[in-house]
Every structure is written in structure tokens, then in C-alpha cells.
Write a structure and sequence with these properties.
mainly alpha; disordered C terminus
Length: about 550
């Protein structure tokens, strides 16, 4: 009796200790939330216009928290309530999908007719290019007779909706323009660390001491956000939206969403435990998503070149659904996916134990990335100079000393750039940029594009010795969207090596599908550029 009494007392003390800790934690959370809301109310009372961004963020956060709470507690009841409607739609889906497709196509055609009457015919070229790329991908599809058109049309539809919201509405334009300004301001804080390490004249070596520190800073921030769980939450929500609208599997949707924020070798780590069990089509989609977008860490570097931050952000978001659309068109699903339930997927968590360790790990993780960027640029630019010299020598034998790598790429990619909606006189220049991006990397291409942008902003003669010095704003914008992806031959080896290391059992499938994935990723970027050329109202920031 004494033993059991002592045991019960010990148990009661243990429970009491646990409950005290839980209550203490809840009190801290409640106090923190109360203090935060008090700050928001005080800020709004003093100057509501100045506190508007904080107010909007708070309202969105409250909405999301309430949504997650309702889904977690009443998700099954909500699903049961809507199940009769879902069953009815599934029964009628055979004819309903054709009605929706027809309505979508008729809406696009009518919109193009009225928009062309107001804006001119240049938008029609971009739309024609979009149709051309879809047809080419269908013709060269792995299994043309097995294509599921829902992801294709849904992906293109999502691109148009995002493009119209950002490029044609005042709210969308203001939101992304505000985000771009905030990111630019945020990235400038990396100058403090660069100045301390490299001295007051660090900007004299712009790329090494100004651009590369931004990559380190951004990597640190992403690691911290990953540690607190914000990135996993955000990627999960974006992936869920794409899964619902496009009908893609959870694995494909999560990786496509992840590639908006992280790199092509980091995003597969989100679904690392499931990689050995995915189908060939899903694996192709995972690789395509990596090729068609850029990482948040290098996004800051491109912004520092002088490329529009709002257009880069828009391109990163729009290319995610495009990557899934092109992947499902170029390599349709022929197997039965084993992972179909969103609730069955658990994203990998960070290994750091606290915020300081997460920040340190993020900075350390950026070392190979920074070194990789630096050595690749040194080697690629040196190789490019050698190729230009060799080609010029060959060209001089035939009285054409102007022959160089850019000219060859320009002739190859010129038709593709023109079909995106680039002005004919600029399509040769954009074709050269696409060649740099494909055969070298997007860093080289954006560096060249930034020079063209700076030349236009400075003004001066458009032609010097018959060579065009800058392009129109329309051509610059379309080029910005077309270049916004990792689809190049250097990344091809990176993807094969990275995925093989975390999924050795898929080595043969990875090597066999990587080239097709790179092509699909390239076309996804081209499609994003076509949509931008179709919906962007050049000359004014948004529709009046």
C-alpha cells in the first residue's frame, strides 16, 4: 500500500509539473499575442495609413490561423457536408469538364479580340507563341495519347489569372510592387556585413563584395524561416492550392511550390522520404519544377543587377504552375501514383535546435553556393571569351570577323524570342540572351540584360556602329520572364547528381528523364514570357 501510494504521489507530481509547464507556455503565448495586438491597435490609432501593411499582415495571419484551426477540428464534418456535391460533380464531370474548357477558351478569345482592338496586335503574337509551345510539347510528348489535359489547361489558366492580377489590376500591381520594394530594402542590409568585412570601398568590386554577400544573407534568412516552420507552412499552402486546381499529386505540387522559394536541389529534400516511391512522371515533374524557377537566394542577386524585382517575383510564382503543366504534357502519367493523400505527406523539418544555430547553418550552407556561382562565372566568362576569339578568327577567314557565340545563339533562338512577343528588331538580342542562359547560366544572361537596361535608362544613341545598344521596355520585360529559370546544361549535372545522392534507387530514371525535364523547364519559362507579353499593358503599369 505504501509503494502504490508513493507511486501515485510521484505520478501526481509529474503531471502537476507538466501541466504547470503547459500553462506557463500558454500564458507566454497569450501575453505575446495580447502585446502584439496592442501594438497593432496603437499603431493604427496613431496613423492608419502608415500602419496599413502591418494591419493587412495581421488580418491575413488571423484568417489563416482560424482557417487552420477549423480544418483541424472540423475538417471531417466539412468534408462530409460537401461530399454530396462532390459526388454529383464527379458523376457529371465527363461533360462538365468540356463545358469549362470551352468557356475558358471562348473567354480568352473574346478578351483577346477586345484587347487587340485597344492595344494593337503585338499581344496576339505572344498568345500565338503560347499556343505554338503547347502544340510542340504535345507533338514531342513521351506518350501523346495518354495526356491528361486538366493539369495543362489548369496550369495555363493559373498563369493567366496571376498575370492579369499582377499586371492588369491596380491592387495586384501595388501588392507585387510593394513586395519588390520591401525585398530591395531588405537586401540592402547585407551591405552592413559586406562593408565591415571588405571595407568602405567594397562596391569597387561590385559582384564579389556586393552581389555575393546578398546570397549569404538571403540563405541565412531562409534557414531561419525554415527553422521556425514558416517556409514549410507556406510551401504546403501553395502546394495545396495547385493540387486542388490542377489535380496533380501531393509530391509534384509540394516540390513545385517549394521551388518558388528554394533551389532545385533543396526542394526535393522536402519530400525526401517519398522519392523512392514516386512514378517516372512524378520524378520528371520534380526535375522540371527545378529547371523552370529560380531560388530565393539568387533572386536577390538578380535584383541587385538592376532587374525589376516585381517582375522577377511574378515570374517565379507564374512559372510554378507552368512547370507542372508542361511536365504533365511532355511526360504524361502512365502509372498509378502511390502517394495521393495530402494528409499522408509530412515535409522534412530543419535539423537546427535554435534560431542562432539555424542562422549559422544558413550562412554555412551558402558557402558552396557562393563558391559555385563565383567559379562558374570565372570559368564560363573565360570560356566565352575564348570561344568568341576563336569564332571571330574563323569568321575572318570568310570576311565575317563579327562571328561570335552570341550571334550563333541569336540566330538559333531568334524565332523563339519573336514568338514570345519580343519586338522583331530586339529578337536577335533576346535570342543571344537565351543562348547564354541555356548553354552557360542565367547569371551571365541577367548580367548582360542589366547592361541593356542601364543603357536604355542612361539614354543616348540606340545604335553605335550598327550595333543596337538597348531594347524597348516590352522586350526587356519579356526577356526577364523568359530567363527566370535554372534550365541550363550546368544545372543538368547538378540535378542528376543531387537527386541521385538522395534517391540512389532512381538513378536510371533520373539520368533518363533529366534532359527532357530541362527542355520542359525551358518551355515553361517561355510560356510565362508569352503570358506576360499577352496580358502586360506596356506603357502604363496596370489597366486604368
Amino acid at each position: 500500500t505504501e509503494y502504490f501510494t508513493g507511486h501515485q504521489l510521484l505520478t501526481m507530481k509529474l503531471y502537476d509539473s507538466v501541466f504547470k509547464k503547459i500553462n506557463l507556455t500558454n500564458m507566454y503565448i497569450l501575453a505575446s499575442v495580447t502585446a502584439y495586438l496592442a501594438v497593432v491597435i496603437a499603431a493604427c490609432s496613431l496613423n492608419f495609413q502608415r500602419a496599413l501593411p502591418l494591419f493587412i499582415i495581421t488580418v491575413l495571419a488571423i484568417f489563416v490561423i482560424c482557417w487552420d484551426f477549423l480544418i483541424a477540428k472540423y475538417g471531417e464534418r466539412i468534408a462530409a457536408f460537401f461530399s454530396p456535391g462532390k459526388s454529383y460533380l464527379e458523376k457529371q464531370w465527363f461533360w462538365l469538364k468540356w463545358v469549362l474548357c470551352a468557356a475558358f477558351i471562348i473567354t480568352i478569345i473574346c478578351w483577346l479580340i477586345f484587347d487587340t482592338a485597344k492595344q494593337g496586335s503585338r499581344q496576339l503574337i505572344s498568345f500565338g507563341g503560347l499556343v505554338m509551345y503547347v502544340l510542340l510539347m504535345f507533338i514531342f510528348s513521351k506518350y501523346p495519347n495518354r495526356v491528361a489535359w486538366r493539369p495543362v489547361f489548369s496550369g495555363i489558366g493559373m498563369q493567366f489569372i496571376l498575370g492579369l492580377f499582377v499586371l492588369r489590376t491596380k491592387v495586384g500591381f501595388d501588392v507585387f510592387n510593394w513586395l519588390g520594394i520591401q525585398i530591395q530594402t531588405f537586401l540592402e542590409y547585407s551591405d552592413t556585413g559586406a562593408k565591415f568585412v571588405f571595407g568602405e570601398k567594397y562596391t569597387n568590386h561590385f559582384f564579389a563584395f556586393k552581389v555575393l554577400p546578398i546570397v549569404v544573407f538571403f540563405s541565412t534568412v531562409m534557414s531561419v524561416l525554415y527553422h521556425v516552420g514558416f517556409m514549410q507552412w507556406l510551401i504546403g499552402k501553395v502546394g495545396w492550392i495547385m493540387q486542388i486546381f490542377m489535380g496533380t499529386t501531393p509530391v509534384e505540387s509540394l516540390v513545385a511550390a517549394g521551388n518558388i522559394f528554394v533551389g532545385q536541389t533543396e526542394s526535393p529534400l522536402l519530400i525526401r522520404p517519398y522519392l523512392p516511391y514516386i512514378t517516372k512522371s512524378e520524378l520528371h515533374a520534380v526535375m522540371t519544377a527545378g529547371f523552370s524557377t529560380i531560388a530565393g537566394s539568387v533572386l536577390g542577386a538578380y535584383i541587385s543587377f538592376g532587374v525589376s524585382a516585381s517582375h522577377l517575383l511574378t515570374a517565379s510564382v507564374m512559372s510554378a504552375p507552368a512547370s507542372l503543366a508542361m511536365s504533365k504534357l511532355f511526360w504524361p502519367e502512365t502509372e498509378k501514383p502511390t502517394l495521393t493523400l495530402r494528409s499522408g505527406l509530412q515535409m522534412a523539418k530543419g535539423e537546427s535546435k535554435n534560431l542562432l544555430e539555424a542562422a549559422s547553418q544558413g550562412a554555412s550552407t551558402s558557402i558552396p553556393l557562393v563558391a559555385n556561382i563565383a567559379v562558374n562565372l570565372i570559368s564560363f566568362l573565360a570560356l566565352l571569351a575564348f570561344l568568341d576569339s576563336a569564332l571571330s578568327w574563323v569568321g575572318s577567314l570568310f570576311d565575317y570577323p563579327q562571328l561570335n557565340f552570341e550571334n550563333i545563339c541569336a540566330y538559333v533562338f531568334m524565332p523563339f524570342s519573336f514568338m514570345m512577343g519580343v519586338d522583331w528588331e530586339d529578337s536577335f538580342i533576346v535570342g543571344g540572351l537565351l543562348g547564354y542562359k541555356t548553354f552557360f547560366n542565367e547569371f551571365v544572361a541577367y548580367e548582360r540584360l542589366s547592361k541593356l537596361i542601364h543603357n536604355r535608362e542612361k539614354g543616348g544613341s540606340m545604335y553605335i556602329n550598327g550595333v543596337k545598344q538597348y531594347m524597348t521596355v516590352r522586350s526587356e520585360v519579356i526577356a526577364t520572364y523568359a530567363l527566370c529559370g535554372f534550365a541550363n546544361f550546368g544545372s543538368l549535372g547538378l540535378v542528376i547528381g543531387g537527386l541521385t545522392s538522395i534517391a540512389p534507387s532512381k538513378k536510371k530514371e533520373i539520368a533518363g528523364g533529366a534532359l527532357r525535364a530541362m527542355i520542359a523547364g525551358t518551355v515553361a519559362c517561355f510560356m510565362t514570357a508569352c503570358v506576360a507579353g499577352t496580358v502586360h499593358k506596356f506603357g502604363v503599369p496596370y489597366s486604368q
